[in-house]
């Protein structure tokens, strides 16, 4: 409080004076400790917040200065458990003297990293990536000549993964250092705005790959249309354990409707963005894949130039999968610029937990392309306001868990499929 000491401010609280003095030393001591711990980037123990809830239930006024400090701490990515914040909001609405403005700010700030948390949990349960990081093999792969981050991003990410998988670990893992490195690599994630989980995943994987790219310097590209040569050309520039796991190859065929000539190109992909073909009813994942790979007529302003006719012609475009990645990430497009003012597409897309056979979408029929699900990043809420969680299958026990920021709970495999599924993580069987 400007112009007054905390003690003087507390003395003016009227009927609550006795309770404040009863709890005063205990309360302020722990709040002070929270400030100190946060400045040292140590996670705030939930016990202290629990004590604040106890004090609030006794109708003790919690000084706004300390709530203000908690807002500052939340901005610094200190992990404040939403359960306790929610409880404080409930208490405030019951006329306990806690300023709602500060609580609202705290809840908003605490939720703003959920897009990152859900992706990290899915990657943490990616068995080959987990074993690569836990074995610390990535340290010998760091490429300081090509990487703009000089290994800082994968080191920070590895630290988070190792903390999550510590046998004796039983608390909240601090992701402050990781977010700082991600913001260095991709400044678009600066600030405290909610972000898209799929975009975050793409930037994170590209940043991790860059840190451990096996190519010391990128050669000049050699033009070719052949699938194998196209893939080798890609690996001559981008080759890492991250690429080994997550990158596949798409075959794009453009057929001229006049002369029948086919122009074929091959492109690497980190994930596949699948459109939802219907706004109503329940769909199957295969319907989304059918829609993604179906033939598209390019006519009018979209007509490309036929390489044989040498003029713009009506063409038929189609996609098939040339190379299947070990880890396949499917992005269900629940948000679209065209749908922005019509809201999020919340239809249920039914997807298999095991035995996802993609041979029908392969360029070469008979390819080994059967996948099992192990992770889902979920989005609840609307286009403008929402929350991310993750559902992940333990890579060793096979048990499913839900990760909601700092809270973890066991779930049944039957509850994994929902209308909130946004990113699907599959492993090649």
From TrEMBL:
One Pfam family of this chain: UCH
Transmembrane segments: none
CDD domains: Peptidase_C19R
Matching InterPro entries: Papain-like_cys_pep_sf, Peptidase_C19_UCH, Ub_carboxyl-term_hydrolase, USP, USP_CS
GO MF, one example: cysteine-type deubiquitinase activity
Residues annotated as domain USP: 104-429
Enzyme class (EC, first level): hydrolase
Reactions performed catalytically: Thiol-dependent hydrolysis of ester, thioester, amide, peptide and isopeptide bonds formed by the C-terminal Gly of ubiquitin (a 76-residue protein attached to proteins as an intracellular targeting signal)
EC number: 3.4.19.12
GO biological process: protein deubiquitination
PANTHER family, sorted: UBIQUITIN CARBOXYL-TERMINAL HYDROLASE, UBIQUITIN CARBOXYL-TERMINAL HYDROLASE USP2
Protein name: ubiquitinyl hydrolase 1
Organism: Timema monikensis
């Amino acid at each position: 409080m400007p112009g007054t000491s905390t003690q003087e401010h507390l003395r003016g609280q009227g009927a609550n004076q006795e309770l404040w003095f009863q709890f005063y030393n205990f309360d302020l001591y722990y709040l002070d400790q929270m400030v100190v711990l946060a400045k040292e980037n140590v996670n705030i123990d939930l016990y202290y917040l629990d004590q604040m809830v106890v004090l609030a239930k006794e109708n003790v006024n919690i000084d706004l200065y300390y709530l203000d400090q908690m807002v500052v701490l939340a901005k610094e990515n200190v992990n404040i458990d939403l359960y306790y914040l929610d409880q404080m909001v409930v208490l405030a609405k019951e006329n306990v003297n806690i300023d709602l403005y500060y609580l609202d700010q705290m809840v908003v700030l605490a939720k703003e990293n959920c897009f990152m948390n859900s992706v990290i949990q899915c990657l943490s349960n990616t068995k080959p990536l987990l074993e690569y990081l836990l074995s610390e093999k990535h340290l010998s792969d760091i490429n300081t000549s090509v990487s703009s981050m000089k290994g800082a991003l994968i080191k920070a990410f590895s630290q988070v993964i190792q903390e999550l998988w510590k046998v004796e670990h039983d608390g909240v893992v601090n992701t402050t250092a990781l977010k700082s490195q991600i913001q260095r690599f991709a400044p678009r994630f600066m600030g405290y705005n909610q972000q898209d989980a799929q975009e975050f995943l793409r930037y994170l994987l590209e940043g991790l790959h860059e840190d451990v790219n096996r190519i010391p310097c990128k050669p000049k590209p050699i033009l070719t249309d052949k699938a194998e040569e196209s893939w080798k050309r890609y690996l001559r520039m981008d080759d890492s354990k991250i690429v080994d796991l997550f990158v596949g190859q798409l075959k794009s065929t453009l057929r001229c409707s006049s002369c029948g000539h086919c122009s074929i190109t091959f492109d690497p992909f980190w994930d596949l963005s699948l459109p939802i073909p219907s706004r109503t009813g329940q769909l199957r994942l295969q319907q989304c894949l059918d829609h993604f790979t179906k033939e598209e007529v390019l006519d009018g302003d979209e007509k490309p130039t036929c390489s044989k006719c040498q003029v713009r012609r009506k063409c038929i475009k189609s996609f098939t999968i040339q190379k299947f990645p070990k880890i396949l990430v499917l992005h269900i497009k629940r948000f679209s610029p065209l749908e922005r003012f019509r809201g999020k597409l919340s239809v249920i897309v039914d997807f298999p937990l095991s035995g996802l056979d993609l041979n029908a979408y392969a360029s070469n029929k008979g390819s080994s392309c059967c996948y099992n699900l192990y992770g889902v990043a979920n989005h609840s809420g609307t286009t403008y306001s929402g929350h991310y969680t993750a559902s992940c299958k333990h890579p060793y026990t096979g048990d499913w868990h839900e990760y909601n920021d700092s809270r973890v709970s066991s779930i049944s495999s039957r509850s994994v499929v929902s209308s909130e599924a946004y990113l699907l993580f599959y492993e090649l069987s």
